[in-house]
Amino acid sequence: MNDDIKGTTNSDQDINDRHRVRMARKKEVVDAKIKDAQRVTGVIVINTGNGKGKSSSGFGMAIRAMGHGMKVGIVQFIKGAMSTGEEQFLRRFPDEVSFHAMGEGYTWETQNRERDIEKAEAAWAKGRQFLSDPTIGLVVFDELNIALKYHYLDVQKVIADLQARPEMQHVVITGRGALPDLIEIADTVTEMQVIKHAFKDGIAAQAGVEW
Amino acid sequence: MNDDIKGTTNSDQDINDRHRVRMARKKEVVDAKIKDAQRVTGVIVINTGNGKGKSSSGFGMAIRAMGHGMKVGIVQFIKGAMSTGEEQFLRRFPDEVSFHAMGEGYTWETQNRERDIEKAEAAWAKGRQFLSDPTIGLVVFDELNIALKYHYLDVQKVIADLQARPEMQHVVITGRGALPDLIEIADTVTEMQVIKHAFKDGIAAQAGVEW
């Protein structure tokens, strides 16, 4: 308990009362916003930027969807030469998750553009299967933005396929450098920005954190 | 195939060759960076900002860790009045994941500061158990930043407990408004920034996407 010199009482009770009033006001605002947002439809979510959390957020959405009994389709572009924790884990649930990894590592590993294009097109063909299957509630296109940035896939073709998907199907697309045309047709877009990164302090990419 | 007027050939072969040279250079840079970052240690990761993906990235890291055979401890602050997809899913694995939800909804729902403090302290006590258990490879403190922002927990006490944890244990902390003192002691900090959000277009928060 503190009393200040002007005689007003800055007691715990006062703090608690002010908190109650402030939170009641906040609840009104939040409730009103929720009341205004009632449309239910499949959404396209993009996670881009140079920061951490783009792919891991996509996989977090996958388990959210699975927790609600939804089936999930996952296509990993670019990544896939190494066995990741998410792949090892999600392959435990073949009835709930269809997992397709492009399987050729990052493009600077292969240095072979023609092979990269071939692999990206094969991965997108798999993705189109998911996009035409209304029993799949969420499709994760991990690192698709990289394949689009390097023009391994035609963005207009990708957009057309996305827009032709079942009405209630959700999609999450990850990778730095999301193209403006893709951002345009997305519902929710987040830019993951680096504030600091352990890598710069000489700490290695580690299992359970980066892969 | 295009020939420009100066007679240089801008063929697919040229594009592919330039790609190979550019990617070889990129590989050198990336390989050198990886060579410099070799320290292996438990890291503290913070996901903050107003954008989407903070919590879902934390849960994505949880399944990455599980894929590598690590045990995971999760404490959900603030959230928990409703049953989320992530909770439903992760409770399937009681031998791999210890899940503790504070269970009182957002603070503007309760409007009761004393009860919120009590619940936050009880949740942190559970978190401290995880932080003193070297068999747990990753601890997720979901929405801890909110509890700190409202001063339901003392940030210096939280930092001391985090720094006393087992050397190889990773921690991820989520929630908007991460406090500067916490950012200071973290290894990797990402700010999720809103580029656009479906909610503003009148689309509801939906199962498998937001919860």
Automatic annotation (TrEMBL), chains A, B:
Q: Which reaction does it catalyse?
A: 2 cob(II)alamin + reduced [electron-transfer flavoprotein] + 2 ATP = 2 adenosylcob(III)alamin + 2 triphosphate + oxidized [electron-transfer flavoprotein] + 3 H(+); 2 cob(II)yrinate a,c diamide + reduced [electron-transfer flavoprotein] + 2 ATP = 2 adenosylcob(III)yrinate a,c-diamide + 2 triphosphate + oxidized [electron-transfer flavoprotein] + 3 H(+)
The keyword Transmembrane is assigned to this record = no
A single GO molecular function, which one? corrinoid adenosyltransferase activity
Q: Where in the cell is it found?
A: Cytoplasm
- Signal peptide positions on this chain: none
Task: List each copy of the Cob(I)alamin adenosyltransferase N-terminal domain by range.
Answer: 11-34
Its pathway?
Cofactor biosynthesis; adenosylcobalamin biosynthesis; adenosylcobalamin from cob(II)yrinate a,c-diamide: step 2/7
Per UniProt, which keywords does this protein have?
ATP-binding, Cobalamin biosynthesis, Cytoplasm, Nucleotide-binding, Porphyrin biosynthesis, Transferase
Which Gene3D superfamilies does this one have? P-loop containing nucleotide triphosphate hydrolases
Supply the EC number(s): 2.5.1.17
Q: Which PANTHER family match?
A: CORRINOID ADENOSYLTRANSFERASE
Q: Briefly, what is this protein's role?
A: Required for both de novo synthesis of the corrin ring for the assimilation of exogenous corrinoids. Participates in the adenosylation of a variety of incomplete and complete corrinoids.
What protein family is recorded? Belongs to the Cob(I)alamin adenosyltransferase family.
Q: What is this protein called?
A: Corrinoid adenosyltransferase
- The organism named in the record is Undibacterium arcticum
What broad taxonomic lineage does this protein's source fall under? Bacteria, Pseudomonadati, Pseudomonadota, Betaproteobacteria, Burkholderiales
